[in-house]
Amino acid sequence: MTDPTRTLGVAVVGYSFMGRAHSNAWRNVGAFYPGVPQVRMQTLVGRDEAKVGQAAAELGWAGTATDWRSLLDRDDIDIIDVCTPGHLHAEVALAALKAGKHVLVEKPLANSVAECEELVAAAAASSSRSLLGFNYRRVPALALARELVRDGRIGTVQEARISYLQDWLSDPQAPMTWRLRKETAGSGVLGDLGSHAVDQLHYLLGEHVTQASGTLRTFVPQRPGPDGTEAVTVDDAAWATLHTASGVVASLEVSRVATGRKNALAIELYGTTGSLRFDLERLNELVLTEAGDARTAGASTILVTEPEHPYVEAWWPAGHVLGWDHTFTSQAADFLRAIATDDPVHATFEDGLAAQRVLAAIEASHARGGTLTDTGN
Prior knowledge:
The protein is α/β, with parallel strands linked by helices. It has two domains: 8-136, NAD(P)-binding Rossmann-like Domain (Rossmann fold), CATH 3.40.50.720; 139-327 and 338-346 and 353-367, Dihydrodipicolinate Reductase, domain 2 (2-Layer Sandwich). The chain has helices at residues 17-32, 49-59, 89-98, 113-125, 140-150, 182-185, 189-192, 194-205, 326-341, 349-367, and strands at 8-13, 39-45, 63-65, 79-82, 102-106, 130-133, 157-165, 209-217, 222-225, 228-231, 237-244, 249-255, 264-271, 274-279, 285-290, 298-303, 373-374. A hairpin with a 2-residue loop joins strand 9 (222-225) and strand 10. The longest helix is centred in the C-terminal third of the chain and has 19 residues, at 349-367. The chain starts with 7 loop residues before the first strand and ends with a strand. Residues 9-129 form the Gfo/Idh/MocA-like oxidoreductase N-terminal domain. InterPro entries: Gfo/Idh/MocA-like_OxRdtase_N (IPR000683), Gfo/Idh/MocA_oxidrdct_glycsds (IPR050463), GFO_IDH_MocA-like_dom (IPR055170), NAD(P)-bd_dom_sf (IPR036291). This is Gfo/Idh/MocA family oxidoreductase. Residues 144-277 form the GFO/IDH/MocA-like oxidoreductase domain.
């Protein structure tokens, strides 16, 4: 347990999309969660000295570094936040844990089950705290949905549908990025968006997927790269059927070529006495249907902005909506609180391993022609 009165030095490794989102969280967490340990935005890390310097100035960092290894022996760094491409997650996080740092890793935990298992073991052996950045667990509507499922408000869940659709690769001339190379990304949309979808299923149901069958597809096999046309070595879209030990059957669809869909995570849970529906593009709303009295049965839309709702009390008056960025600030607050109190934290590295096992089973199923495959969960 860390002295809750001591200011903690933070370093974020990576300054692009996720690095900016996490930086925004570290900058704001003390203002909205004054009860957690205070932080000092010490160092932003990136390989390009000029670009990371510019990002640090924009985002409020005290200093920069071009080599993440320089953080390991520094007494002014207590937390290392890993926002690199997936192929570096395991290396950076393992070294940080060994150095006694608290570690936050952006999802997915790593690019393979073996790396995830190594990280789980390292976290268990360390006296430091670790957290996996599945930020959608901090969407108030989804946290409320978990409570309603746990409280039996929709009965026993039997079916689920989860889709996560984007369209930023629908243009075949969209250029290559590290996300389209297997050696850096591990997988394509399956690891990128599918990891969120699988984790939400685990989070909402309170149990893991034990079997999966699936299909992957790369619709655009080549894209323009910096040195000419380059082969895309990951999936553009994926479909799967998932099974849990209790008998829940879930359909999963993820795509980065779904024209017209920008960031559409849609979740539907169907129970014996009701259902829940959520759409990330309307993230302050949760649709609840409860059966029973035929006169009042039907869907009710809950605006999840009341102070009694999860995570909302830290923010604005009732009815004032929250956004995507707020989830990262709430995530940082949960992590800081756990560092100070030794309270349980989520998502854990074990949660990341459980999700990665499902993704690996879907890939294995695809390679075998879609056969049902055990996940190992």
